[in-house]
Structure formats: C-alpha cells, structure tokens
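question for whoever is on the cluster today: can someone run the full assembly for these? three chains, 857 residues total. i dont have access anymore since they changed the login thing
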Amino acid sequence: MASANGYLREKIRWRALELVFWPATLLPFVVTPDYLSLASQIAITALFALSLDLILGYAGIVSLGHAAYFGTGAYTAGLLAKHYWSEPLAGLLVAGVAAGLVGYATSHIIVRFRHLALIMLTLGIGLLLAEAANSASWLTGGADGLQGIRMSPLLDFKFDLYGKTAYAYSLAVLFLCFLLARRVIHSPFGLALRGIRENAARMPAIGAPSRAHLRKAYTIAAVMAGIAGALLTHTTSTVSLETLSFERSADVLVILILGGAGRLYGGIVGAIIYMVARDQFSGMNPQYWYFWIGLLLITVVMLLPNGILGGLGALYKKSQ
Amino acid sequence: MLGSLAGVLFDGLAYGMLLFLLSVGLSVTLGMMNFVNLAHCSFAMVGGYVSVSLMNRFGWPFLATLPMAFLAAASVSVLLERGLYRRLYRASDLDQCLLTIGIVFVSIAAYAWLYGTEQQAVEGFPPYLRGSLQFMGINLAAYRLFLVLCGFLVTAILVASLEYTRFGAKVRAAVDNQRMARGLGIDVDRTFMLTFALGGGLAGLGGSLAIEMVGLDPGFALAYLVYVLIVVSVGGLGSIGGSFAAAIVLGISDMAGKYYVPWLGAFLIYLVMVGLLMWRPQGLFGKR
Amino acid sequence: MLSTRNLNKSFGSLVVAQDISISVPRGARYALIGPNGAGKTTLINLVTGMLRPDGGKIILGEEDVTALRPDARVKRGLARTFQINALFPQLSALESVVLAVLERKGESKAWWRSLPRYGEAVDEAFSILESLRLGPHCQRLTRELAYGQQRLLEIALALATRPRALLLDEPAAGVPKDESAELFTAISNLSRELTVLFIEHDMDVVFRFASRIIVMVGGRILVEGAPEEIARDERVREVYLGKRRHAFA
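^ ran it for u. tokens below:
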C-alpha cells in the first residue's frame, strides 16, 4: 500500500529536466545581456499563459477573453503607480487582488455555461472590459494609453534601460507563481479540477461541488493573470488598450496550445518559442506574422493535438 | 427628433439585414453539426473581394457580381469543409475554435498580401443605388433600401426552401436530431456539405453587399465575427427566424447606440449580449 | 432506507414516470427490471437528482432529499453508477478513486497541500480497488483499462463515496456473461449494511442476486415482489413473453 502512495509521490517529483530548466533561465543575464527586455516580456507572457493553463488545461474552461484579467491587473498597477503609490511590490499585490475580484465576480457567470455559450461569454466579457476602458478615456487615457507612470525602484534596484531589473523581477515572480501553480495542480483541489476536465457530468455523482471548484480555479487564474499584467506595467511604464484586447486573449491561447495545454510547462515553452520568433521576425508586417501563426495553429490542431510538449512526449515514449 | 428616430430605425434595419445575411449560414451549420466555425466571416470576405475584383478589374456591373460572390464563397467553404473541418466534427470546442481562428489569421494575411490593407474603393457602383428617396420626410438611402429588399428576399427563399423542399426537410431533420436523421437513411454528411456551401455562399453574398455599407478590408474577418457570433448565439442555433430577429435587434440597437450615445461605443452591444446569454444561454429562439 | 412517494415526471406529453412509490429497506438487494423504455434509468436519475421530478418525494433514511442537488445527495449517502461508462479517461484508476474519497471527506478544496500527504485517503482508495480486484491495475490510466475493469471502476467510484444506498444502472452492460456473474458476485459481497437497487436485463442474474424485484412498464410500477412471486406473475409473463418479447434481450 506504500506503493500506491509512492506512485503518487513519483508523479509530483521534480524531474531532472526541470532542475536544469530553471537555473538555465538565468543564462540571459550572461549570454544575451542585450535581450533582457525581451526575456522579461517572455517571462510575463509565460506567466499569463500559465494562468490560462490553470483554467483551460486543467479545468477545461475554454476562454477567448482571458486578457480581461491581464488588462485589469495592468491598469490597476498603472493607475496606482501614477496617482498614489509607485512602489512595485505593493502594486503587484493590489493588481492581483483587483483582477482576482473581477475574476471572482465573473466566475459566477462563467461556471454555469459550457460549449458555445461559454466561449461567447468569455469573449463578451473580454470585449466588454476593453470597450469600457476605451470609453473611460478620462481614467485610462483611451487609445493613447496610460502615460506618465514613474515606478520607484524595486527594493533598491532601479528599473534600468537594459532591463536587468525588469527581467530579474519578472523571472522571480514567474517562478513564485509557477511554484504556486505546481502546488495547486498536485493538490487534492488540482485533482478535482482534472476530474472536471475529464468528465464534468460525473463529478456531481461522486459528490463534488464542481461549480465551487471552478469558481476557485477561475479566481486563482485571474489573480495570476492580473499579476502578469501588473508586471508588464511595471517593466514598461505604460499601459495600452492592447492589454485588454481580443488579440492578446487569442495570442495567449495560441501560445498555450503551441506549447501544450495541461502540462504546466506548456505555457512557458510556448511563450519562449512565440516571443523569440516574433522578435526575430519583428521587421515583418504584423499581418504576415499572423499568417504564419494561423498556419501553425492549423497544423498543430490537425497534427499535434497535444502541442509541442505533447508531441515531444509521444516521440520520447516511442523511442523507448 | 421623430424624423431622426425613423432614420435610425431604417438604417438599423438595413444594417440588421446585412448582419442576418452574414450570419444565417453559420446559425444553420452550427445548429446542425455543432461546429464552432469562427472563420465564417472569412467566407464573407471571399465574396467581398470577388465582387471588388470583378468590378474594378473587369468592369462587371455590381449586381452581376453578386452571384459570383455567392459561388466563390460557397466553393471555398466546401473545399475547407472537405479538407479540414470534417475531420474535427467530433473534436472538442477548443480544437474547432483554434483551427478556425487559424483560418481567420491566414485569410486576413492572404487578403492583405493580395489587395493591401486599405479599404477597398469601388469604381462603377451603379448610380441608381447611390441616390436616395424621400418618403414621408425621411431620407431613405437607395442602397439601404436595396439591402432591406435583399434581406427579405433571401429570408423568403430560405424559409420557403427549408420548409417545402426535400433538401429542406433533410436539413431540418439533421438539425433536430442528427442521429435520428442518420437512422432514417439521410446522408447527413452530404446534407451538411450542401448546407455548408449554402451558408458560406450566403456569407459571401453578405460580404459583397457589405462593401458599400461598412467597407471592406482584410480586418473584416475578425471585426464582423463578433457581430455574427452575437446574432447566432442570441438568435439560437439553427433558427432562421431567431437569427433574423436577433440581427435586426442588433442592427437597430448598434445604430441607435452610435447615434445617441456614441461615447459608449460598442459597450452597450456587448453588455446586451452578455445579459441575454446569461438569461437564455440557448438563445432567444433556441431549443436546446 | 430509500423510498420514493408518488414520483411523477413527463417530458411534454411523454410520461416517463407515473406515480412511482418504492421502498427499499436497509441492506436489501432490489432488482429493477422491465422492457426498454420502461423508465428504469429515469427513475434512477430522479432519485439521484440528475432529473427534477414534476411531483412526489424522495426520502433517504429519514430525510426528504427531493430539493437537494445531486452532489448533496451523494454527501448524504446516495451513490449511483452509470449504464454507459462515465469515467475520467486521463486519470489513473487510483487517482479517480482517490478523488472520490477526498470529495467525500471534504478535503478536495485544499489547494496548498500535495496529494501524497493524504495517505489515509490513498490507502482507502487502494483498498476499495483491491476489494474489486483492481489493485494491480490501479496505476493505469482509466482509458487503458479493459472494458470489464472499467465497469468495476464505475462501482469503485460509487463505493468511495461510502454510500448507504447504491443504485447500479446495468452494472454488467456489455460485459460477457461469464464475467458478469463474477461482477455480480463482487456486488453481492458488498457490505450487508449497504442498500442496493440494480437494473439488470439478465434474468438468471436477477433471480440469483435479488431479494426482491420491481417490474416497471411504461413509466409505472407493474408489480413488486419476491423473485418466486415475480416468476409466477401472469402480468410479468405477458410483458416479457407475450407481445413484447422483442423488447427484452
């Protein structure tokens, strides 16, 4: 019987590859010091994708409007820093709470629906917030974005031009949130989420309050997305309407699917590939960029249903 | 004030007809196969650009390009259905969404490459559609009147053919209960392909009719997707009457919103949509 | 232990349950039989709360549970299995049962402690699987299990909720005859405290394992009685052997 528990312990053990991966995230400081701003963008995007993974990959909620929480966090952090309090760590916290509140409020709607209605509602709520921010230009700066944010130094480090502080900051927050997400999915609650994803109809028959579980997962994901948004504000000192846009929601979905949903590192791997590729092709007209993304999406859906990580996993299994 | 109200109502009605044409095909195919086709407006774009090309490069009259727009969009949608969609009928919503978003991205880029990103200017638009009529003190743009006529015409043809033809009976059977329809020996796959062609074709027609009213650029596939989805989900899947009603309500409220409370932008529309979906997730006229 | 009073349910003009009153005492093994479309599964859906009755009451122990949601009924000791496997394909057998155990104990809300810390729940899940002879397969993903093993896992999931009353909807559906006897032996070896109501089409199995039989036809109860009485009953013969012979496989 110790074996039953041993098997569960084995499942959540840190793998060698993970122990290599995280120290390797420090390499940009030494190897590509000119690209630290990009590295920090990648870390932020990875965090955003990780938060989507919690609800999509683990709880099976398809969302076309996850940017709503990212943007809420970004604007909260921006407004707070501009008008009241420019110290970043507190801003991070407040932004997380604000996004979490919006997430908790909307979760009551979200968890009652599935299929098309769910997709439409996530899309609708996302568009609703984007339009609200656009209309309330006295507060948000509208299409010009929120300008004139000056961040105080983080602990004692100024946000420098090279993005050293920015990357260290983003990476640290990503890592902490990753630890949290890892904890969550390896907990009884995480198991319940996977149960809902696998068979939502069966859950009540084993006495599970599915909706309460989903609300909680949705709120946790919203907090994380809000923190990611706040990181973007802190490291770039501006907030634009783009943080709330459908494009951002679609991008993060693409990134997660590309990497592989429901596998914890899917969002991170997807973010690295996507952001590096976009940087390499930055001279390209964004519309052509989306041509390749579209083609990639079609290919992934038709040929690689579990994303890049899933494909690699299958290859690895075959080779054994 | 009253005059402007009537004007807004009329413009909204015309706009609603356009939205109906764009979305009715999606409503039927979604109701039938439960396939979340986010690329529906890309089909509309196919129709739109076919019309533009025929008029600008080959000097075709506008009206003559409409059937071609229908045919072109119908063929493209059949190609995609055979090649890609049918393999994902049993896949998850997510996979269907992703595939079709992919197609949207590709179509946007393809048209940007072929035609550039600017709004298409149409030469040789018939003058009799450019003028306007005075009716009881209201200024009725001829083109919008034409749109309303088209809308009613298409609705009449659709309803008649779905109600009174054999093909229509098959479609209705397949929408109602796909398994039962298969059991009755109806070739659901073929029925679906034809319906899909019809839906795509109607979108193409809508796309080419849209040029004069809302313009055409590669962003069309995404910009109008939201409206089409609203019409379909609010109207109820597979319900032509529902789509018709939802499209008109949406068209009028969007026009009225833009006219009376422009600072709210599209906020009002989205709010109404979220509210309606929460109230009736099956749509106003939906059964399931 | 488990009873219903005058349950009614119809979909439009189709009456699927009409005036159904049953009463299953503690520890009894009741079989629910009847031709296809008689409303057997509907009755289970009504009792477990997957469907809402138009009228009538459902009583578990002393408590009226008619207004409770399905998960709340499970919490009070009313579990069921499904005629068509309703499992968690990508979870291992052990994980599935651990999940059900944790839900029962109210520990599934914890999101900060890792799963292996719940040793007791894991042990319990394992012993349930072992009692159904699934122990050696517990680490395999559900979708990789043989069909018969999946049927057993259905029961394991229900047992993990520690039911007082267990409703089995054709537990042996699709299982070859020899395996189905084995499956029912496992069911009859369940605790004598547990109240069981099962739907089954195989008359051999029904007469062997049921202490009492309820016959349903067309949404109502035709007759209820001990196996010998049912075997002799003219009306039952008529339903099964008479004009509706084809309905009974």
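summary bc i know u wont read the tokens: Strands of chain B lie at 132-135, 138-141. The CA atoms of residues 12 and 252 of chain B lie 4 Å apart.
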